[in-house]
Design goal:
Elements lengths: L3 E9 L2 E5 L2 E5 L3 H4 L9 E9 L4 E6 L2 H10 L7 H7 L5 H9 L3 H4 L7 H11 L4 H5 L8 H15 L4 H10 L10 H12 L3
Antiparallel strand pairs: 1-2, 1-4, 2-3, 4-5
Helix pairs in contact: 8-10, 9-10
């Protein structure tokens, strides 16, 4: 199986990497796509290949921890590779691992694609199986402002909004993460702006 790819980025959407003259298309988390820049510097992905009867899908992650958590997530009943990739689209693996180990279903159910039952299932099935990931060290702590913005964006995307649309709505309403509004208030206002207020 292909565990790692290193080559020249051809495009970020879709993500295509040229390795020795062969273009590999990868399904990657949104947060990784935002980090990609089409320049001459080589890019490296930690990968997983899903083999199905009708096709093969190559998943890629800029961070090894994301790949390791992805492999744990797809072991959970009802969580396939597409959903696992969505779960990893906004936050570092360390933040998600902390939430699962801490039983924080409230945070988990805000992640794209996750509902209450699946969030609770992640806690139940993985809560004591992530020690090896936690041992690798926690992700750098987010600042209060960026963490609050992440929560707002996660809530908006869980309601079906795309990440670019969520960012655009927050820009339109000129919202600052250091404001006194709660996440719920910001989400409601952002939805009004997105609807063309």
């Amino acid at each position: 199986m292909i565990a790692r790819l290193r080559g020249k980025l051809i495009s970020a959407r879709p993500c295509v990497v040229d390795v020795g003259g062969v273009g590999y298309e990868l399904a990657i988390p949104d947060k990784d796509r935002e980090r990609l820049r089409p320049d001459d510097a080589p890019v490296e992905f930690h990968t997983f290949v899903q083999v199905r009867d009708d096709r093969m899908v190559l998943f890629g992650f800029l961070e090894r921890a994301d790949r390791e958590l992805f492999l744990k997530l797809i072991e959970v009943t009802g969580v396939g590779p597409k959903l696992a990739l969505s779960v990893l689209s906004l936050h570092p693996a360390g933040r998600i691992v902390d939430a699962i180990r801490g039983g924080d279903a409230g945070f988990l159910k805000q992640l794209p694609g996750l509902g209450k039952k699946t969030a609770e299932r992640l806690v139940m099935e993985l809560g004591d199986k992530l020690d090896d990931l936690a041992a690798a060290g926690p992700a750098p702590a987010a600042t209060g402002a960026s963490s609050l913005r992440d929560e707002v964006v996660a809530a908006l995307t869980s309601l079906g909004m795309t990440r670019p649309a969520a960012d655009a709505a927050l820009e339109k309403m000129n919202w600052r993460p250091d404001s006194e509004q709660s996440v719920a208030d910001v989400v409601r206002e952002a939805l009004r702006y997105a609807a063309g207020r």
